[in-house]
Amino acid sequence: MRVAGALRIIIAAVFAGLAGASTAQQSLPYRAPQHTRPPPSIGATEADIVAYANGGMQIERDRSPDDILAEHRRMARALAGLLPQRKGVVDAYVVAIALDSDPVFGREVREAGKVLARRYDAVGRTIVLAGTDGSAPSDLPRGSPDHLSLALARIAEVYDPQEDVLVLYTTSHGAPIGIVYNDADQGFGAISPDRLAAMLGALGIGRRLVIVSACYAGVFVPALADADTAVLTASSGDRSSFGCQSDNDWTFYGDALINHALRKAQPLAAASREATALVAKWESDGGLKPSQPQTLIGDKATAWLAELDRRTPAAATAPVGQPAVSMLTTR
Fold first, then answer.
1. CA-CA-CA-CA torsion for 110, 111, 113, 117, nearest 10 degrees?
2. 3-state secondary structure at position 172
3. What is the rounded CA–CA span in Å between residue 317 and residue 106?
4. Beta 126-129 vs 92-98: how paired, if at all?
5. pLDDT per residue over 263-298, tens digit each?
6. pTM of the full predicted structure?
7. Which of 43, 38, 60 has the alpha carbon at shortest distance from 1?
8. Are 246 and 104 in contact (CB under 8 A)?
9. Disulfide: which of 120, 187, 266, 300 matches 228 by Cβ 3.0-4.6 Å?
10. Per DSSP, which regions of the chain are E strands?
11. SS3 label, residue 12
């Protein structure tokens, strides 16, 4: 019970401890949705909490019928817009999802979708799921466990498992049970490593690059690791990552990997090393406990990654937004 109590405290802090994080957003004409109410009870024991996360737990409350219908239509358009795979070509299908409605994740994941689509020749084969970017209500389907399931299922329908690749980028707050879903005061849940692995396995999505930007993200590595998989995470399984304040443009890891390393025509392994070194420098400069990003690239994954990397545009693109490290000068 002592372990379960600590786990509940961590999850409650993730859900409810961010209400005062935004400063710049409050001065804008549009006010992003806030985390102001405690989450619903999600179980009395550690086993309950883990079981819910393993089931892709999602709890919704106070959704209006109009909002539900509009959300359904946004998701239907996103799924219908996916292009079919091209025979004889290693096509990448990109899903970029922000599972928390804090604007930092909305901004990060929108740019991640653009960078990954360009890098992996996936324009027309990319779905971005996210809440607001802080400037206006989101015009995208929200990032939620159910919507991730729908996106993955649709990709499984249109891609060739012998040729094609899933590229999944997910960003949010994290906990030891996995990555957390929190849409302001209305949506709550979590996706555990076992849940994600089970979904991909059931859908036959074996060739995959999975990038998890969240605290404790390293818990996804053992569950997903195999010869045909590449997994990159913002932290080890017992460490926090940094930069997730609501009014940031990037988390540390998203800035280092997406906004810098993956904009260049270099192999994924080299990009990961560059991002890890950059994060380590920022953390050292700020006196922060190292997050220890993780990288695992399976033996078979190196072949299809090389094919995708050969199609990466030669010209690098410039980083956008305010650097994540700038938060260190305003603390």
1. 150
2. coil
3. 20
4. parallel
5. 999 999 999 999 999 999 999 999 999 999 999 999
6. 0.90
7. 43
8. yes
9. 300
10. 58-60, 92-98, 126-129, 165-171, 174-175, 178-183, 187-191, 208-213, 229-233, 294-297
11. helix
